[in-house]
Specification:
The chain is an alpha+beta fold. The chain has one domain. It has one helix and four strands.
Length: 57
């Protein structure tokens, strides 16, 4: 899967830590290439809001 999305680092052969936001139609809405583990949950919630994704219960 990592190779299909183009996130494998050819020099080190491990996937980079990116987050893909994918719409209901299967299209990629945004790619976050600057993932920070410490704040990632908050970053994801903020990005989803800016993309207009409604929260579910």
């Amino acid at each position: 899967m990592a190779e299909a999305y183009g996130v494998v680092n050819e020099k080190r052969r491990y996937p980079m830590r990116w987050t893909f936001y994918i719409g209901k139609d299967g299209k990629i809405l945004f790619i976050d290439k600057k993932v920070r583990a410490k704040s990632h949950g908050e970053d994801v919630a903020r990005r989803l809001k800016t993309l207009g994704v409604e929260p579910t219960q």
